[in-house]
Design goal:
This is Zinc finger LSD1-type domain-containing protein. There is one protein chain. The chain has strands at about 20, 30-35, 40, 45-50, 55-60, 65-70, 75-80, 85, 90-95, 100-105, 110-115, 120, 140-145, 160-165. The chain is about 0% helix and about 40% strand. Among the domains are: about 20-50, no CATH class; about 55-85; about 90-120, no CATH class. It is built from no helices and 14 strands. By secondary structure, it is an all-beta fold. The strands form six sheets. The chain has a four-stranded antiparallel beta sheet with strand order 12-11-14-13, with no helix packed on it. A two-stranded antiparallel sheet has the order 1-2. Strands 3-4 form a two-stranded antiparallel sheet.
């Protein structure tokens, strides 16, 4: 029998020290103690390997907006509630061409706008300070919101970067 999802909780996080995962055989939502290496489904008796706690990441489901946990390196995540598949974005880093801070961007972006100095640095261009980056014509702005500095704290600090995807010429 499927474990009911507590209101406001998503797969991967549960009350107290519990986590959730969908059975790999029958898709029943299972609740288990966080840190357990495996979970046996009471419905079909399938033994499911639980994701390691340290290597789990989170993303919002594109269908129902519930928070999904997934193992590091996954390309997509299927929601156990609405069955929609959410693609996991891939990121890379570069140094701002003006203020020299490190910026994170989605790998398909052709340039990145610095959230600090607003300078546009082309992806793949050598970092030459103020000489690089001018002349890019942005066609799409991408906002990347990284996990908060301390998700458990009452007043966590958000980490947001802005990427500008320019048209290829």
């Amino acid at each position: 029998m499927a474990m009911p999802m507590p209101y406001g909780a998503g797969p991967g996080t549960g009350p107290g020290n519990h986590s959730y995962l969908a059975c790999g055989e029958c898709q029943t939502l299972l609740m288990y103690p966080t840190g357990s290496p495996s979970v046996r489904c009471q419905r079909c008796q399938h033994v499911n390997r639980a994701p390691p706690v340290a290597d789990s990441l989170q993303i919002s489901c594109r269908g129902c907006q519930v928070l999904l946990a997934y193992p590091r390196g996954a390309e997509s995540v299927r929601c156990s509630l609405c069955s929609s598949v959410t693609q996991v974005p891939r990121y890379s880093h570069l140094v701002c061409g003006s203020c020299n801070i490190t910026l994170m961007y989605q790998v398909d972006a052709s340039s990145v706008k610095c959230a600090v100095c607003h300078y546009v640095t082309p992806v793949g261009a050598p970092n030459r300070g103020a000489q690089a980056g001018h002349g890019a014509k942005p066609s799409q702005t991408v906002v990347i919101e990284n996990p908060p500095s301390d998700p458990g704290a009452r007043h966590s600090v958000k980490n947001i970067a802005v990427g500008v995807k320019a048209e290829k010429q």
